[in-house]
């Protein structure tokens, strides 16, 4: 497989009257063609800002810095806004969390889908209309020609989200970033949309970044998982390795909050609150909420350490035996 996206040292800084806020700090990862990367973490950990930074859609108060963000071999940090606009919606697309606020209430579904085709493919309106109808049928919306004439408020929540997925697929992108696209859906529709994502991703061979706070969703969809806390990656592994051997205390805390079938009892909790992440923050950002934190955790920068084959963790507690097993090539 070849990397569709390679991110090195991504940071986001927001200027404040009293200093600066750094909600995304030193993010590095890559996504292979045909791979589903799940990015998980609680609200405020920097997931959405990371996705907006990748797409070049940050608010004016925010500044993006990175050593490199290579999309299909091209460093997009060096591109002009005009060239980025040619990429967005064409070769890289984004599905936002709430389709009700993402779709224009004054335009029909057909007009909004066709507009993407006309902007990037330079085709005519009938061609765009046919493409939109094909995609609505592909994502499971029946009577597609009839639905194209409807406005967003005339569709159910699940159908609006499917329409957003169809819009993202209009130009057959190499990469789709889905930012918590199932949060506003009920459980039944959520399962249908997740199945749709997996089927389309396999059929079309595109790379998919799926951002969520729901580890249950990640377990069903992702090939690889990246756990974020305080704007940093604290653990990264294959989905199988992460759920079988969660290493970072934050990851363990998230998993303890999930209900376990056949195991009644109180759910786990993570005490404390997320600190304000400024440039002068020292040590581990999770130290104030971690039961295992020591003086070293609060004073020294914590780097990513090997916790298994393809499994890394930003914690001083990574067992030495895991390092030796990884060196020996034992999973």
Description:
This protein has helices spanning 47-55, 81-87, 99-102, 109-121, 125-138, 144-148, 157-169, 187-204, 215-221, 239-244, 249-256, 295-299, 320-327, and strands at residues 3-16, 19-32, 36-40, 62-65, 68-71, 74-75, 92-95, 175-179, 207-212, 224-229, 232-238, 305-308, 311-313. With 331 residues, the chain is of the alpha/beta class. It has 2 domains: 3-80 and 175-259 and 270-277, P-loop containing nucleotide triphosphate hydrolases (Rossmann fold, 3-Layer(aba) Sandwich); 92-170, no CATH class. Strands 7-8-9-3-10-11-13-12 form an 8-stranded mixed sheet, with helices on both faces. Strands 1, 2, 4, 5 and 6 form a 5-stranded antiparallel sheet that branches. It starts with a strand and ends with a helix.
List the defining traits of the structure above:
2 domains; 331 residues; 13 helices; single chain; 13 strands
What topology does this entry show?
Blueprint: E1 3-16, E2 19-32, E3 36-40, H1 47-55, E4 62-65, E5 68-71, E6 74-75, H2 81-87, E7 92-95, H3 99-102, H4 109-121, H5 125-138, H6 144-148, H7 157-169, E8 175-179, H8 187-204, E9 207-212, H9 215-221, E10 224-229, E11 232-238, H10 239-244, H11 249-256, H12 295-299, E12 305-308, E13 311-313, H13 320-327
Parallel strand pairs: 3-9, 3-10, 7-8, 8-9
Antiparallel strand pairs: 1-2, 1-4, 1-5, 5-6, 10-11, 11-13, 12-13
